[in-house]
Hints:
With 234 residues, the chain is α/β, with parallel strands linked by helices. The protein has one domain: 3-Layer(aba) Sandwich (Rossmann fold), CATH 3.40.50.850. Helices cover 42% and strands 18% of the residues. Strand 6 (157-163), helix 8 (165-178) and strand 7 form a beta-alpha-beta unit.
Amino acid sequence: MQPPAPYVMPSYVIDRVMKKRGRLRVFDRFEPRETALVVVDMQTFYVSDVPPAIAIIPNINRLARVFRERGAHVAWVKMTAGEGGRSLWPLYHDYFFSKENGERHRDNLTEGAPGHALHPDLDPRDGDIVATKSRFSAFLPGVSDLPEKLAAKGIRNVVITGMLTNFCCETSARDAMMLDYRVAMVSDANAARFAEDHNVGFTTVFQSFGDVVTVAETIDDLVVSAEDKARTGA
């Protein structure tokens, strides 16, 4: 599987950002102990038929390994759409799907169903955070337990990866920022079904909700302790 193609921010977005804030990056550094890698919806039901999502698995695993090594946190967030044959989001299933597709989505994303599990090529470890949600956003109060689990560990910064870039990941990034988290999305560790959808998922986030960075930028520059920054002179 080919790695995702490099993302290029449109020039008009860069021009608008520079006029607005006078710099490209919002945040220079995230202190690792206050930072979590948030992996959204990388579940078998979703990932298996989206080749770009399979392609980002090595990048997610690499980030997770580095975050743990640096004392940062890793959070795996799973969509749970049904429970005992009952929809946890009736409006979505009743109006945005055919009856058959709504039932398929609900039942495959019920706890215990094979499709609900993380994709087997991912590398979760003991000690990682595991959270569940029943809406697109991982940060929507009342339907996701991620915020309370992050708060318990003193996490202020979130680095968002997973799928789909322009649905659950972008929505999570927006809500996280509006809950006063410092946010970054990783361009080569998010995935969508189509390149156009993937690309458009970043433009609004970059303008007003957080940074859009690469895996390399996250590792080499963003999630670095103050001591390491001082030692390297970065």
